[in-house]
Specification:
- By secondary structure, the protein is α/β, with parallel strands linked by helices.
- The protein contains 13 helices and 18 strands.
- The longest helix is centred in the last third of the chain and has 22 residues.
Length: about 475
């Protein structure tokens, strides 16, 4: 039976509306005084604390994803977003470089996308049948990526989950190769040796140990995954030579999206392509982060390498929940009703595919990538100049649309994979600088492993403000 009395001592009527204006900061309020006495001023609880208390009361840790929990005082509660900005519930504006972990490629609440969704949803949303909106989105996606066929999903996790099943069905094999520090979603098969894995648990570089990212993952899955260091040609060739007959797929992020956007070494992706061709292995590009963000055709176009299957999500919908699996017809047609399963009630729902088609249309017809590249280059070169001037060893990795900043030790080798990045990184200094940026209204992720993401709405003035704040935060962090 539900409690009739309030769950906590905070009166619910004071928690009703998120504050978004300039008067929404922490205020003082007059406390009730005894008869004949003067009221005393006491600090009022901030809107953030009020909303976070409500969140903690109904959601574990007050969040819907563990990655959003930054600690009791650091976790933010957002009221709204528009363009390149978000506002928290206390009314503070931030230039947003997280962009929902990358989906927001155009800008928050982008008018053309919102309008397309509004108009489409007047016709309904879920029919459990093919709808005209998903056909239009699929046609545009295939044209932009060069894919023969596509199936829509609801998230990146669903995309990689189904892609692995397709690869296993196509090859008749069960094992797959992934690379340490790459993140491929939240299903049990891929949550091994991800960016949360401690360096000391990974074992020998020549004989890596699969490290589960969570309790609750069946140990029986350990034998299905072969983790290897990213950019290690010799290790990959030796492994495929010894175990290629067991390997259904090589699953790879073309850019390490959860390790500060570390880039592939010259020839790395081409090397994977060749090994897959020689051993009958399905090459899967996980483009959940790079897809429709680094080029109109994603990493395949950017690097000039074609995969057999490609998984998408994030930027393809500018923040609306959608994903996709696309690829060669022969591999995609492994999906067969009654034989190889792929589906979901909300796959291809009208709202998501209308958002996708509208987002891709803007990416095709407007200078989105040119603008983002120009402003991203200003930030990357500006950060490099500031850090060099203050004598801070660093590497800036990735591409202008999603780049990483790793501060570290000049005596350590330049990061080229997960292990070397962990050894190089100065996490404490990175955290102090990021905290200083947050105080100044600049919002990159609190974790240096997460890239800085840019959107089309970001202006030159925003870039200038960011560079000024960055220098101030660096100077403060070094005191």
């Amino acid at each position: 039976m539900f409690q009739e009395t309030p769950f906590n001592e905070l009166p619910m009527e004071t928690l009703g509306t998120p504050a978004v204006g300039p008067m929404a900061s922490v205020r003082t309020t007059e406390a009730m005084a005894p008869a004949g006495g003067a009221p005393s001023a006491v600090p009022a609880i901030s809107q953030r604390d009020r909303w976070f208390a409500r969140a903690r009361a109904v959601m574990p840790w007050g969040v819907s994803s563990n990655f959003r929990y930054w600690g009791e005082q650091e976790t933010k509660v957002i009221a709204r977003g528009k363009g390149a900005y978000v506002w928290d519930v206390d009314g503070k504006r931030y230039i947003d470089y997280r962009l929902g972990f990358g989906p927001v490629i155009l800008g928050h609440a982008y008018d053309a996308v919102n309008q397309a969704v509004f108009e489409a949803m007047q016709d309904g949303n879920v029919f459990a049948m093919t709808n005209v909106y998903e056909v239009c989105a699929a046609e545009r996606l295939c044209r932009m990526t060069g894919a023969d066929k596509v199936r829509f999903t609801n998230s990146g996790t669903e995309s990689t989950m189904h892609a692995l099943r397709i690869a296993r069905a196509y090859t008749g094999r069960e094992r797959f190769i992934k690379f340490e520090g790459c993140y491929h979603g939240g299903h049990d098969h891929v949550m091994w040796s991800t960016p949360s894995a401690p360096l000391g648990a990974l074992g020998s570089r020549r004989s890596p140990i699969p490290v589960p990212s969570s309790s609750g993952i069946p140990s029986a899955l350990r034998d299905k995954v072969i983790p290897l260091p990213f950019n290690d040609f010799e290790m990959l060739e030796r492994t495929v030579r010894d175990h290629g007959h067991e390997v259904a797929a090589i699953l790879v992020e073309p850019i390490m999206g959860n390790m500060a956007s570390l880039m592939p070494a010259k020839g790395w992706l081409e090397f994977i392509r060749r090994l897959c061709d020689e051993h009958g292995i399905v090459m899967i590009f996980d483009e959940v982060k790079t897809g429709f963000r680094i080029a109109p055709g994603g990493a395949q176009q950017f690097f000039g390498v074609r995969a057999d299957l490609v998984t998408y999500a994030k930027a393809m919908g500018n923040g609306f929940p959608i994903g996709a699996i696309a690829g060669r017809e022969e591999v995609m047609m492994t999906i067969e009703p009654g034989a190889v399963g792929q589906g979901g009630t909300y796959c291809g729902n009208v709202v998501s595919v209308a958002a996708c088609e509208a987002t891709l249309r803007v990416l095709e017809t407007e200078p989105v990538f040119e603008v983002i590249n120009q402003r991203g280059m200003k930030l990357m070169s500006g950060f490099h100049e500031i850090l060099s001037r203050y004598g801070i060893p660093h590497v800036i990795t990735g591409v202008p649309a999603m780049f990483g900043v790793i501060l570290g030790d000049a005596d350590k080798p330049t990061p080229r994979d997960y292990r070397s990045a962990l050894k190089y990184a100065d996490e404490e200094l990175s955290f102090r600088i990021v905290r200083g940026l947050h105080q100044r209204g600049i919002l990159p992720d609190i974790d240096y492993q997460e890239p800085w993401f840019l959107c089309y709405a970001l202006s030159d003035a925003d870039v200038a403000e960011t560079l000024t704040a960055y220098e101030e935060a660096v100077r403060e962090a070094l005191r």
